[in-house]
Amino acid sequence: MTHHADVLVVGGGVIGLTSALELAACGHRVRVIDRQAVGQESSWAGAGMIPPGDLVSGLMPFHHLSVRSSELWPELVSRLQEMTGLDSEYIRDGALHLSAPGDEATAEQSVTAWNESGVPAELKQGQELPSLDHRLELLEQAVCYLPTAAQVRNPKHLQALLAACRQLNVAFHENHEVQRFERGGDRLEVVHAGEEQFRADQIVIATGAWTGELASLLDLEFPVFPVRGQINQYRLSHPLPHVIERGKQYLVPRRDGVLLVGSTEEHVGFDRSEHPASIQKLHDFACSLLPELRTQQPERQWSGFRPVSADGLPIMGRSVELQNVVIASGHYRAGLSLSPVTGEIVRQLVRGESVEVDLKLFAPERFSSVARQN
Description:
By secondary structure, the protein is of the alpha/beta class. Helix content is 28%, strand content 27%.
C-alpha cells in the first residue's frame, strides 16, 4: 500500500513529534513513521533538563540556539496543555552548577560568563539559598545558581505531543522500519518501510542515534553514533528544590519525590545491557551530595542512546544531495531541550520561510563529499 503526505517525518522521538506538530499546525498533511512505538528511545530515557543556554561548547551559535529553545518552552507546554489537557510538568525551578573535579573554572568565573552571555546567574553559598534544605552537603561550597533553568517530565511531555499531533490529524505508522529508498535525481521519491510505501513532497529525517544507519541506505554521509547513557532512580520523602549539576552528572528532582541521577557516557554501540560499575558510579555521586541515599539502592535503572555526530554538534538543515530532504539529528545530550527550536527550524525549512537561527555551524553538508570537493 502506498501512503501520500505533504510531509513525511521519519523518526517519532521528541524531535520528530515536535516537527510534526509545527507542520500540522500550519495545515500540512503529515505522516510519521518509526521503527517501533513513538517516543521510546532517548526522548523518553533522558532526565528532562532544560538549560537556559550552553557555555560548555564555547560556541556562541550553539549557545544562542539553546537560549532560543529555552525561551520557546513555556509557550509550547502551555499550548499542549490547552489542546490536550495533559501536563508536561514543565517547571522553571532553577539549577545549581557545582564545579566538577579538576575543573579550573570557579563558581565566580561561571557566574561572570553566564551573565556576560545574557543569561542571569548568581553566586550563592549553600546557606544563602533559602529553598535548599539541610540534606545537601553544599553548605560550605560556592555555587553558580541559574534561576531560569527548567525541567520537563519526558514521558508526560511525549504523551502530550502525541495527543496534540493526533488532534491535528497527523498519521502515525509505528513499527515500520525503513528498508530502502527510491531516489529520482536530486529528490527522494519513495520510502519503503515493511510492506508499506510512503511518498511525500518533503521528508524530514529525525531518527536520532539511527541516523547514520539510515543515511547509509541513501549513500549519504551523516555520521551519527549512539552513546549509551544510564540513569538511576530513587525516591525521596520530600523533593529537592533544584536541579543540581556537576560536570556531566546531575540530580533531577521530580515533584512527586522521584529523583533521577545521571548520567554515563558509554561508547558501546546499541548494547542495552546494564553496566554495574556505571550504576555504582552514579550511586556514589548521588551519595556524595545527598547522604540519605547511602541507605538506599536505586529503585530503577535504565539506559538510552544519545545521538552524537562526528563533531558533537546537531545536524540541521536541508540536504545538498536531496533537495526535498531536511535533516534534524545529532543533538547528543540536548535533544529534548532543543526540540522546540528544532521543530521551529524544521517548519521554516519545509515551508521556505526565513530561518531565524544561523544554521551554518549545523549544516548537513559539512560532512558530505560534495562540500569537501568545493
